[in-house]
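Each field is set out underneath.
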Amino acid sequence: MDLNESLDLLVQEARELLADMESALLQLEAGDISADCINAIFRAAHTIKGSAGLFGLEPIVSFTHALESVLVRVRNNELSIDAELTGLLIRCADYSRSQIDALEHGADLAAHDPQLRRDLIAQLQRYLKDDGAARSNAGDSDEQSSGQLRTWKLDLRFAPDVLANGMDPLSFLHYLSNMGEILAMDTRTGALPPLSALEPETCYLEFSLELLTAASAAQLRAVFDFVAEGSRIDIRCISAPAELAFENAAAAPMANATNGEAKASRGNNRDNALLKVEARKLDALIDTVGELVIRCASCQNQSEQLRKAGLLELMEEVGDLVEQIRDRALNLRMVPIGEVFQRFPRVVRDVSRELNKQIDLRISGADTELDKTMVEKLTDPLMHIVRNAMDHGIESVADRIAAGKPEQGVLSLNAFHQSGTVVIEISDDGRGLDTDKILRKAIERDLIPADAKLTEKEIFALIFAPGFSTADTVTDLSGRGVGMDVVRQNIELLRGSVDIRSEHGKGTTIQIQLPLTLAIIDGFEVAVNDAHFVLPLDMVVECLEFDQQHFGNIFNLRGQPLPFMRLAQQFGITSEGNGRECMVVLQCGDHRAGVVVDRFVGEIQAVIKPLGKLLGGMRGFSGSTILGDGSVALLLDVPALLQRATQQASRMDGLQLLTSLAH
């Protein structure tokens, strides 16, 4: 592993630790002053300091050292948690995050916002007594508060390629000196080759030192995690307090009995170990699996033409195996949406303070999984919707009291699976959307004629018009509707849809529906004349023969009205004209409609390919796929089709609908 790869790991780990730290700090601020929260904050700072020390990143080490010193006093009950201290710790976490960002972009850490750094350290120093320096050293050990100092003997033989990998052995010794007092150290070289064979990037040094510290063996060994492979790291206790020595002696007879259990435990942990893989490698794997699916479909098509029983059976087995490979490969890309949701507690905290509002954020369904690509692209749309809800949705405290509501507003984030899709709901109990105001604004901007008769759903859809806003004043945060056209565009690029439900005076819910993955899906192939289309199989409810039990765009499905559309009419295709038609009943979320085609082809595995520039902007398509015979089929955008079918059917009045059902 070279230095850049090691720094990348440090940056990634630090960001995860800072996210945990922020979550624990927000719990503290909410009143959960528990040992678990405090320890989580301390461990994050301690680990970041240790990792940065291995790379000689002194600006990060020194800052987290000061932060850690205050946290030690908190853990020892020498400092009480209050709003002022919590706010300071949150600002320190923000500065640490900015340091990590600067490190990632190769900036000079020593010159990173020096004034803010001085201010924060000065505020931290106010929480330290005169003996703060001694106490800060205590922060390097999770066991320092017990006062059990021990002397450890460390024999270190670094891997020969440690220098070539960008690691400096002296940085490890420097970090050990921060964990305690080095009592003695001996440096020697191993077997040196002849001068002509000496490699300048090969490490020949060995170190032996005695360290007085309260750190445990596990903590000392963790210092060398980055260079453990290929190195010899021997750590043993050579001096301990009397009571510790007595405990060690008493435990000695049990060592042989417990050794096997310890090994078994380590083995079990290894079985459940996590392995981090670069995203590009996963993407390359999915691309290869997609090509395998296409080739498998082609082979199955050829075997059906040859009509050899043995070959057909073999290809069926191969198809099952390819399907298993596909599902397992796709599962590797699935991540919990909590990765996005975890950003919002801090956002709600800061924005509610800025607006002087009381807002309670409630999160559910954070463990709902979807494709990592969608998780990455969801942050901006969700951020815009959440800021809208806080700024223009939830009322001020005075307005809520006047409306008979609790002073504290409620903002909810919820995610769940439904009909083969992932549904994300952002709800608030605020003032809701004012349909009359939306109509007036739309008429003023000539979006609709003054005499237009729109349903409530169509009125809500107006806020997705570019630049549309009903806000009386523009704020730095948001404007209900401003930028909502971008939100919808971003969601539709993910083959998703956005729906709005609102009740004036009671609140608004914005529902986002997304497919589980953007790579490979189970599809249902249909045809209109020679044109082939693919529908997501998870959205197919049933297939039936289309008859004359319909009126306009409403079909009588067992006594229930069902909106439908003909693909031939929708895309200007000439139907086969044999007098027989078929219908696929589709459902996406709460919406259900029928799609009329010439014939059903059957189930397929569809590898989704992006549309070219020519078709990229067309509504109704979300991609393409290659069929077994090498031809191309278009993947239909079901949410868009259902919305269009529903709008066409909604133009029928009540009398027409009753007439349709009567027939």
Residues 130-147, 241-256, 258-272 have pLDDT under 50 and may be disordered. Residues 279-306 form the longest helix (28 residues).
